[in-house]
Amino acid sequence: MQNPYTVADYLLDRLAGCGIGHLFGVPGDYNLQFLDHVIDHPTLRWVGCANELNAAYAADGYARMSGAGALLTTFGVGELSAINGIAGSYAEYVPVLHIVGAPCSDAQQSGELMHHTLGDGDFHHFYRMSQAISAASAILNEQNACFEIDRVLGEMVAARRPGYIMLPADVAKTTAIPPTEALTLPAHEAQSGVETAFRYRARQCLMDSRRIALLADFLARRFGLRPLLQRWMAETSIAHATLLMGKGFLMNSIRTSLAPIAPAPVAKRCVRP
Asked: Can you name a GO cellular component term (predicted)?
């Protein structure tokens, strides 16, 4: 008899739909049953790591190359070991989903005294810590699981910053309906008049300036603007450079390249007469 489709399967299918083919992490007592689903998944590969911090850095590097990454830790001690790596991903706009296997919902609601907690019946201490370094976060339950998975992943990918999902062991086993459509990203809502004013001002600057130079940094890479900028440079032969974190982002081999620059005085000398 075929096993029923569960929230765990739904989460893994959504990861695969985001182009994530590897899940980094460390097994722990609260994520072992979820790991069974990971091992059985047809396209997602488990990559066990020596510790959670290594897993966080591995997921970060994977996301930089593939567009998004994910790691799995266990509640409390495991997730805290990964938090430094996730903070780095947040600082540098890298979308990494942190999945935390947690105690069953009943144990959390009754405030049971359990290991990996602070012993005060509050199971959300570590969740609140992660909120400060996450674009979106959620504690899954039987009612909201699929909706919240989609929301967190959508906001994570759109903001290019980490997401956090606490997955109680019982919720992971809850039956779910497989997704029938691709994940929908949140629509970009421009502030009224801001983009129009920016376009007008930028157009005026380009028309009125005798010398024009393009300075782009790593955020342009994170939000997928490289093809647009490369085409602009090819069509206009505009002088261009990056800051140090954007090194290699633009074509440094062509004659209009000013190479990476760092201090403001250097940048001014490059673009001013």
From this structure: cytosol
The Cα–Cα gap between 50 and 48 comes to: 7
Q: Residue 215 in 3-state DSSP? A: strand
Beta-strand ranges (E) seen in the chain are 22-25, 45-48, 69-74, 96-102, 136-139, 163-168, 213-216, 239-242
The model's pTM: 0.86
Query: Of how many residues is the chain composed?
Result: 273
Pseudo-torsion of CA 199, 204, 207, 212, nearest 10°?
-70
Question: Where do the domains of the chain lie, and which CATH numbers do they carry?
Answer: 7-173 (3.40.50.970), 209-259 (no CATH)
d(CA 270, CA 273): 8
CB 14 within 8 Å of CB 183: yes
Rounded CA separation 127/100 (Å) = 9
3-state DSSP assignment of residue 102: strand
Sign of CA dihedral 200, 205, 208, 212: negative
Helices 7-17 & 145-159 angle (0-180, nearest 10): 20
> pLDDT (tens digit, 9 = 90+) per residue, 143-199?
999 999 999 999 999 999 999 999 999 999 999 999 999 988 776 666 668 888 888
Whether the CB-CB separation of 89 and 161 falls below 8 Å is answered with yes
